[in-house]
Amino acid sequence: QGESLIVDSARTKGVSENVRHLSFLEIGQNVSTTLQKLNKVRSIQVVSCKLIDESFLSTCILRFKYLRVLRLFISPCELLPTSIGPLKHLRSLELIENERITALPNSICKLQSLQTLGLGGCVNLEELPRDMRKLISLRWLELTTKQSSFPEDGVGCLTSLRSLYIWECSNLTCLPRDTSYLASLRTLIIGNCKQLDLVMENYQVIPLRLQKLGIIGVPRMVALPEWFQGATNTLQVLVIVDCENLEALPGWLTSFTSLRRLMLVSCPKLLSLPEEMHRLTALTEVRIVDCPD
Length: 293
Hints:
The chain is mainly beta. The protein is built from 2 helices and 13 strands; from the N terminus they run ββαβαββββββββββ.
């Protein structure tokens, strides 16, 4: 009671000093004055606020040293203040669908408690911070970037990652060359990456812990890459959607004895399922939609 507040108008009088969780739907002129009176805020969420700017963010970052969560959904901000680096307690940073952001300060790589980083829908993000490998606690990463490849010593070195979502990366041609991150992943979702080739050259299959795999809108995939075989004993859900050049599923897929759900949608060149599908004894659901052949 009194710890959460939704600000939906310019009137923010009477805000309790005990407020810990602030959600802004609208930001008035007196908001900075209001924020100066608070010191217990742990989470801030801003949803589609047209009036938010860098000064508002700077005030929040400088004022609330113990901030745990910062969420900016569909924000007009072009920059994230470099002063975010000292927020050593921050565990979740989400900048979902912020289409005006072109770059992130490398200082976010100082956030060694950060577990969640959401950059999905940031379609103008030129590149990821160069020291991503320093985010040693990161478990959940959703990203959109204009890069054609991932830099060395970056995402591929995030050995604590459990969930990775790669969305709308129109220029991306390959996954990280350093494959250290694959060993810890439980969920991998790749969507609408038109230039992406999932084949990894000189990759030796290693045991994976992958449980959920989704591939959506990847036209360059004509077959499941060999490295997926590493998830033989763990994969439970496989979803393939809008892969217009996928021609066949490999025979080795029938050795995935933990597979429970298989969904194939809009794969017009797919002709058949592998022989010996009966070996998938854990399978409880198969959906095939819009695969006319």
